[in-house]
Amino acid sequence: xxxxxxxxxxxxxxxxxxxxxxxxxxxxxxxxxxxxxxxxxxxxxxxxxxxxxxxxxxxxxxxxxxxxxxxxxxxxxxxxxxxxxxxxxxxxxxxxxxxxxxxxxxxxxxxxxxxxxxxxxxxxxxxxxxxxxxxxxxxxxxxxxxxxxxxxxxxxxxxxxxxxxxxxxxxxxxxxxxxxxxxxxxxxxxxxxxxxxxxxxxxxxxxxxxxxxxxxxxxxxxxxxxxxxxxxxxxxxxxxxxxxxxxxxxxxxxxxxxxxxxxxxxxxxxxxxxxxxxxxxxxxxxxx
Length: 288
Known about the structure:
CATH superfamily: Ribonuclease Z/Hydroxyacylglutathione hydrolase-like
Strand order of the largest sheet: 8-5-4-3-2-1-16
Distance between the termini: 33 Å
Oligomer: single chain
């Protein structure tokens, strides 16, 4: 049995949990427990308690990328660094900034998170390539950006506070679970592009069907043309369940709900997704 519980999200699926701009979810796969992202750090512990999620039992923690809203809760989650490996792309440790016309915001790992990571470097597992973090549970590592449509609307993300070095977000990665019925994909923000991410995972898994796609799709600022293109491309890939969250944005969620009908599921903190499982062996494939 695969059970996925969203712990942190921008919205709530039930009244006894709190919200924040962030994302974190708990993965239980045939007895193995993994935390994917940690939210911004304001709700992880309280929501986990309300949802009955035993954070202390995590066998591994994986970070989708190095932004504060996915890494801020790490000090609350990483209780046994000497026993629990932390999987992340090396680029997640970079300094990050959002540089606007009149404002500057630091959006990388918060200082307490950086300090914690620096204290436990031997526990880090860098995922530049696809990596199995628990039986049948993988992270993608770097995701090739093959669809230019998803890279055509750059955001004001930079590696320097002066806004001279655009941030390519090479650390963006997704988590995927290989089952006998298909692949379950969890997205943190999908900065590499939703379709780029799904195509890469299908390439890695021998074109396995998409059982579910859950998480942030970073479409909140997408132009109408890009949103239409993304919806059409998603429909062509036939995910059995689609549950957008976090940075997807209300307009995109509405368009996806209309396009996918009964395959669309509401996310939000407290949402739970369950899938029957017949594990299949999976070997990392080398993309062309």
